[in-house]
Amino acid sequence: MSAQPPDGAPHPDSFASVFDVYEVRRDDGRVLYFGDPRADRQTIEEAVWPAFREQGYEVRLARRTGEAVLVAEPRDANEDRGVPWTNVALFVATLASTLFVGANWYYVDPFSPEVVRALPFTLSVVGVLAVHELGHYAMSRYHDVDASLPYFIPFPSLFGTMGAVIRMRGRIPDRRALFDIGAAGPLAGLVAAVAVSAVGLWLPPVTVPAEFLASSAAVEVQFAYPPLLEAVAAVIGEPLSYSDPAKSVNPVVMGGWIGMFVTFLNLIPVGQLDGGHVLRSLVGEHADRVAPLVPTALFALAGYQWFVADAGDTAGIWIVWGVIATLVTFAGGVDPVDDASLDRRRVAVGVLTFVLGALCFMPVPIQIVG
After folding, report:
1. CA 143 to CA 176: how far, in whole Å?
2. Which helix (H) or strand (E) element contains residue 137?
3. Spans of the chain, pLDDT less than 50
4. What is the distance between the alpha carbons of residues 6 and 318, in angstroms, rounded to a whole number?
5. pTM of the model as a whole
6. For 126-181, how does the pLDDT look when each residue is reduced to its tens digit (9 = 90+)?
7. Which of 43, 78, 113 is the last residue of a domain?
8. What span, in angstroms and rounded, lies between the C-alpha atoms of 356 and 330?
9. 23 shares its domain with 132
């Protein structure tokens, strides 16, 4: 048994004041420092983090067979190598699914060459989602946090996708990094959503074919508009609806609509959703008191719509998100290594982020009216 680490790993003497190492082992590329803690968990991890980070290791305090151990794992063990084929395949599949679904928005046959008319819809939806996720990715890189490229999720729905996600691996160094990574996605995505909405409003409306208007089998789906999108339309001076039933807003506008609705959902303040990251960075461990209230509020909203407002079509959305919020709450959030409070500028930006998220809220986003 040895207390000497392998070459390149921090020496136990560099953190002996908080963790007294009596044995060092190698375990499948990881370095295990067994020892006696001389401080609480938070203090130990804050103290050892810089030394391990400098040497290229992620570190965490754990217990094995009753012993305290610092587990150090090389950061390059999680790095993606070569072409990220999974990301590429999902991206291409999402382009295809949104193009296929987008054909319906333009009233063209998705199996005909005319399907290319739906490209503006595809680019608006995928573009807004990409900007959102790349906001997270860019700030992860800025703070030297290992993160994957976006994974797009193709799905046969009204929009052809269920969004996109990135995977963060390793620890978040401090609240500043947690805030920047969490807020960057929604803020970048909203900038893109506003820009796409403006372009869509400037584009000419789509003409609904007469056979669709006359068909008894046609189903009318009505979309509400969030306050932020209504504000964009008011500033530009373009309508979001028409008195002529043969006219429909350009589908590019729906790219902005999707971006805004996704932003609201992501800013729900629980667990590892963007809103959970932002709230945790703003108020620290007090965020744990807020999280259990969120699923209750979502289920209450669903109940109101089902039993009072006669909006049962939308109640299902909030039931699903109530379940998601419950699961995410139980899964827990992210605890940064350094839990020092944020500066005032970030606090102000955090409050603004939640205000902008609230402007994307729609109690009844989608409703089947006929």
Report:
1. 9
2. helix 119-142
3. 1
4. 53
5. 0.87
6. 999 999 999 999 999 999 888 888 999 998 888 899 888 888 877 898 999 999 99
7. 78
8. 27
9. no
